[in-house]
Structure formats: structure tokens, C-alpha cells
Amino acid sequence: MKPNIVILTGAGISQESGIPTFRDSNGLWENHDIMEVASPEGWERNPELVLKFYNLRRKQLKDVQPNEAHKAITKLQEHFPVQVITQNVDDLHERAGNKNVLHLHGELYKVRSEKNPDLIYEWHDDLHIGDLAEDGAQLRPHIVWFGEPVPMITKAAELTANADIFIIVGTSMLVYPAAGLVGYLRSDVQVYYIDPNAKEINIPNPLTVIREKAGTGLPRLVDKLIEQA
Ligand code: NAD
Asked: SS3 of 174, please?
């Protein structure tokens, strides 16, 4: 039986596509305090600013392309069952052809009713005050903001528990509950962690830390796994 490979990705995997991470820029996300644009309090205080911020992120997405790291996952899935769990809100995994992608923190190209988290719509253009869901409530970005529940974490924990190999790419392992997923791994599962600033993670598993950019580190690891298969 082929090993089941689960890959946890963060903002770092999209950095070489030209989407900045915010932890690398002093906690600012495109020059905004993160709590201003990614918290329920920020939305309550200044919804126009929040909408403008995500409208710009949606526009930015049209100008960027998947990079070698996203493409390496497409290659890997030709040889193994692969599941991606991403904290990213961009669609670069999908555009690279990655098939099984679970978005933990929502998606830029989706919006939802402010009142009902289950009323979700595809949305590729700008979102404005006055754009309403079917329930009459204002539409907001379908993004999990700081302090909000992460409904997909249960599914992500199940997928992690079924991993035979676990690869972590481009994430600081500081944002919870995503960072806690490693706690669901069987203790014999080999973990690879690719991030130029990777710190040691406190887990009982065999751990290989690769302090490289995703665009070089991941294709090399993928080639090694395919060769060993
Ligand atoms: P994070 O905490 O996961 O940190 C980013 C990590 O990426 C850092 O550890 C950094 O060392 C690493 N990194 C930077 N360049 C890299 C590269 N070329 N290759 C591999 N690793 C690299 O993520 P964050 O930026 O603090 O963002 C937290 C949350 O904000 C995300 O989980 C997401 O919900 C949202 N966010 C999403 C995007 C996106 O969708 N592309 C971008 C920024 C922030």
C-alpha cells in the first residue's frame, strides 16, 4: 500500500509567487495591523476598510501564478495519495492542479452572510457595503478571522490522524489551532518541515527540518519520495 501523504501549508508556500507572508513583515499584512483587517472587531469598527483590503487581495490573486512548490505537489499526487491542508486563502494550490485541498482559514474567492456562516457564495470581484446574502444580511469575506472558530479543524485533524507521511511547508507553526494538528499524528509518522526560518517542533515523531525556501526544498523532497517509492 502506498503511504498516504498529508501536506500542511502556510503563507510561506505562496511567498515565491509574490504574495507576502505577514509574519515576515513585523506582523503587518500589506501594511495593515492584522487586527484591523482580520478580526471581528476590525470588521465592526471599519467594514469599508476590511472590504477594501480583501478586494485588493482578490485583485492581487489575478496577477500571481502557482510556483514550483505548488507544482511539486501536483507531481507528488501522480505517485501517492496526497491531501493538502492549507492555511492560505489564495487559490494557488487549485490552480497548480492540486486535487484534495482543505482550506482551514477560508478562501478569498468566497464570501458569506454576516449572520449565517453556512450561506457561502463564489465571489471573484469587489465586495461592497450593501451586497447582501439571501437572508438579507451583509456579505463578508469567507475568511476565518483571529478569534473566530475554525470549523474545518475537525476534518483536518481526521486527515492528519490518517497520514503515513506528514510534510509541513512555509508556516511558522505559531497560528493555532493549525499548529496543533501535529498532535494528531501517529508517533511513528515521518515529519518533514520546510521553512527557511523553521524552529524545532516538540513532537515525538521522527522529524527532518529543511531550512530552505518552498520552491527549492519541496521539489527536492518530492523527487526523493518518488525515487524511494
Ligand atoms: P505563518 O505564520 O504560517 O508564517 C509564514 C511562514 O512562511 C514563516 O515561518 C516564514 O519563515 C515562511 N516563509 C517565508 N517565505 C518562505 C518561502 N519562500 N518558502 C517557505 N517558507 C517561507 O503565516 P503568516 O504569514 O503569519 O499568516 C498567518 C495567516 O494569515 C495564514 O495562516 C493565512 O490565513 C493568512 N495569510 C494568507 C496568505 C495567503 O493566502 N497566501 C498570505 C498571508 C497571510
From this structure: coil
